[in-house]
Amino acid sequence: MTRKKKAAASRVPRIPKDLRELGRFARAARRRAHAPFSRFKVGAALRTRKGEIVTGCNIENASYGLTLCAERVAVFKAVSEGLKGFDAVAVVADARRITPPCGPCRQILWEFCGDVLVHMEDLRGRSLTMRLSELLPLPFDARNL
Ligand code: THU
């Protein structure tokens, strides 16, 4: 590799292997999305610090407003199973731009998962990883009550 290429490669942020693996769970969940109205399929995978993984996909409804996002499905599945102590969530969609969690999902993720890593990927493998606190600065939570 030339010196120039090496320098360019070192600027590409390295994605931890385990987040790539979590992304694969989200990708598999995405295939189960029920999105006949928007045709925008999303998959999510939530991980506990112990390594347990719970997935979710978006589930739409003809009434539109009852649609559930993939992230919230994953969070509610996990909470209802009694899981706690999350460290990362992966979100996979297929769009020209990387898909970040919507506003309500950020709020729900903050409530149950705290400042987790949010790993966003598309089907081409492009990705972006941020902390939830970067996506939701100054959150409203129990400390405000
Ligand atoms: N969607 C998600 O599942 N997660 C997001 O964070 C963004 C939006 C879903 C909801 C709806 O079924 C479709 O994507 C289009 O908005």
Protein architecture, described:
The protein is an alpha+beta fold and 145 residues long. 34% of the residues lie in helices and 21% in strands. Strands 2-1-3-4-5 form a 5-stranded mixed β-sheet. Helix 3 runs parallel beside helix 4. About 3% of the residues have low confidence. Tetrahydrodeoxyuridine binds next to helix 3. The site of tetrahydrodeoxyuridine has 13 residues, from helix 3.
Structural topology:
Blueprint: H1 3-11, H2 17-30, E1 42-48, E2 53-57, H3 70-80, E3 86-93, H4 103-113, E4 117-121, E5 127-131, H5 132-135
Parallel strand pairs: 3-4
Antiparallel strand pairs: 1-2, 1-3, 4-5
Question: What are the salient characteristics of this protein?
Answer:
alpha+beta; globular; 5 helices; five-stranded mixed sheet; binds tetrahydrodeoxyuridine; single chain; 21% strand; 145 residues
